[in-house]
Design brief:
With 511 residues, this protein is mainly alpha-helical. The protein has 2 domains: 351 residues, no CATH class; 90 residues, no CATH class. A 4-stranded mixed β-sheet has the order 1-2-4-3. Helix 19 links the parallel strand 1 and strand 2. The longest helix has 49 residues. The chain starts with a helix and ends in an 8-residue tail after the last strand.
Length: 511
């Protein structure tokens, strides 16, 4: 029998035992802890400082009691306005909205991971949650009224529920039965219904992304013999159709047809066609938040190595899943992630880090498989050092992401704050609701000022309310505003938002 002193000389064995205890403690509280940490990180690092972006003001204005609705672009969908409506219909407080979304996104991360619990150990899902939730992009957009992260959550949940519906006997976390015949395993209707709802949510938030998700799941039903069940395919189709119905109906009401809306949306985005945008996405992985046109250099290339390593880790995760009897679920997660990323990597000519959030969420599953395989597939004596190595690498990655997040938030605090400062300058000039703001950056400035931005204005039209036109310094005003009073706005800090205001004399016709 070993003495305590002798036992103390073998730390690897004690670490290995701790690793084994973590693996055996298969509790849902792992997921609760990760989701709570995700929310707390948002509240600490993002929420208190960040104002509203251009895109957010478009979504929020549709359901706001603070300002008239701004023009709703043909490419947008109504899911995000529905998400924020419980707050924006009550208050115009940005802080209240941020807190609400931070809590909601934490709950969504928990639920998305929970949909995978019959398919993976809880500790492994928690690891996937840490890797996805720890990305600066995920933390940055968690408390924002933007669609990409909500597509990520709904897609991650949909794939997990699809697998549950297709393989109802996968309750064993150690060796799910993914290869049994379809006849032996009837579809689990509760999971099937929940999966259809998740696909519908993705389509309600962003129909274009949901189409790629639905296509990947539909192809999986056809291609994999064990999944060839009409109920699975019907649930995918019905879910997508239900979620996209609002977008289609609005297309006929506002644009004449769905094809017309697609055409206008494509024209607004610069057209769709083959474009090798992988390099663009790599250049924007650490910012800027919108790379259009993407002519910037690669920021902090040494901090982008994880992005290049991601495909390798996904492949290693597939191998580890194969050894654990979970290959089909790992491959489906990776395939759906690649499908969701396809249009952003190959079909548009600009980039934004948020575009790949759904792909990152799904890739986290096979990456967690790879790490799980490393920690469980080696000799017990080596598990301690392996766990320590994983902890160090993951800690460094989280620190890197936090550093990039801090830089991005600091960069945007001043930029978004200028919208509020311009609105304040306009109020001092008498531009108060009901009012109209047109010109450069008109949508966010109008929202902050409580003004409209969507109505047009023509030469000879009589001014019946306070109107201001924002014009870049050195540029001439529109023809209708040539006789209006020019004002320089002193509160602007960012050179990118420097504008002058032409204010209309009340009761005078534009000339």
């Amino acid at each position: 029998m070993s003495s305590p002193a002798e036992a103390g000389l073998r730390p690897p064995r004690s670490v290995a035992a701790a690793v084994d205890r973590v693996r055996q403690a298969d509790s849902v509280w792992w997921l609760v802890l990760v989701a709570a940490a995700f929310t707390v990180a948002q509240l600490a690092l993002v929420v208190p400082r960040l104002g509203l972006s251009w895109d957010e003001t478009v979504y929020i204005s549709q359901v706001s009691s603070h300002a008239p609705a701004s023009f709703f672009d043909p490419a947008r969908a109504r899911g995000i306005p529905l998400l924020v409506a419980p707050v924006t219909l009550i208050t115009s407080s940005v802080l209240a909205l941020r807190i609400y979304l931070a809590v909601a996104s934490g709950a969504a991360l928990f639920l998305a991971l929970l949909c995978w619990r019959p398919l993976r150990p809880a500790w492994q899902l928690a690891l996937a949650g840490v890797m996805f939730g720890g990305l600066w992009t995920t933390l940055y957009y968690g408390p924002q009224a933007m669609p990409d992260l909500w597509v990520a959550f709904s897609s991650l949940a949909a794939v997990g529920l699809f697998l549950q519906a297709a393989s109802p006997a996968t309750g064993s976390k150690s060796a799910p039965a993914e290869a049994s015949s379809p006849a032996a395993k009837p579809v689990r209707w509760r999971a099937l219904t929940a999966m259809a709802i998740c696909v519908a949510i993705a389509a309600l938030v962003r129909p274009g992304d949901a189409l790629y998700l639905a296509a990947a799941l539909g192809i999986a039903v056809i291609a994999v013999r064990q999944w060839r069940r009409w109920q699975l395919l019907a649930a995918v189709v019905v879910g997508f159709a239900a979620g996209a119905a609002d977008w289609v109906i609005e297309a006929y009401v506002r644009f004449g047809s769905a094809l017309n809306r697609l055409h206008e949306a494509g024209a607004e985005q610069g057209g769709f066609g083959f474009h090798f945008a992988i390099w663009d996405e790599l250049r924007s992985v650490n910012g800027p938040t919108l790379c259009r046109p993407c002519t910037v250099g690669l920021r902090y290339p040494e901090l982008s190595l994880w992005w290049l390593a991601l495909p390798v880790l996904v492949v290693l995760g597939g191998y580890a899943a194969y050894r654990a009897g979970r290959l089909a679920s790992s491959v489906l997660a990776a395939a759906c992630g690649l499908s969701l990323a396809f249009q952003y990597l190959f079909l548009i000519n600009y980039a934004a880090p948020r575009f790949l959030l759904p792909a990152y969420a799904l890739a986290a599953i096979p990456v967690a498989d790879a790490i799980g395989g490393l920690l469980t597939g080696i000799q017990r004596d080596l598990r301690g050092p392996a766990a320590l190595l994983v902890a160090v690498v993951l800690g460094v990655q989280l620190l890197i992401q936090a550093t990039v997040l801090e830089h991005q938030v600091a960069e945007k605090v001043s930029f978004f704050g200028d919208y509020k400062r311009i609105a304040s300058d306009l109020r001092s000039l008498g531009i108060r609701p009901p009012c109209l703001v047109k010109g450069v950056q008109d949508i966010p400035v109008a929202f902050y000022a409580g003004c409209a931005s969507a109505p047009g204005f023509a030469v000879g039209q009589k001014v019946t309310e306070p109107v201001a036109v924002l014009v870049a310094p050195g540029q001439p005003p529109p023809a209708y505003a040539r006789g209006w009073t020019l004002h320089e706005l002193p509160g602007i800090q960012s050179q990118l938002l420097k504008v002058n205001a032409y204010v209309a004399p009340r009761g005078q016709a534009g000339r």
